[in-house]
Amino acid sequence: MDIQQLLDSASSFYHRYPIFCYVAGALIILVVLWKPRKALKNLLLLLVLGLILYIGLTLVSSVDFGIAVKDKAIHRTEKEIEKL
Prior knowledge:
The chain is 94% helix and 0% strand. With 84 residues, the chain is mainly alpha-helical.
């Protein structure tokens, strides 16, 4: 998963639903101003969970790429064996 794709998705979501984004941003600002310590702990937890999700998705995409390369190599080898 590429960071640019994530940013493009967030941008398109913002352009599709700007009012929802404004309301969510205002709620986040109110919570941070009302209980800053609890909000910052929750934000840190969300950032850690997002990082874990990003690493997991990157690993899954690399495994899928490896499987695709392996299948391509197997197909190429079978083609060469059939020529003999």
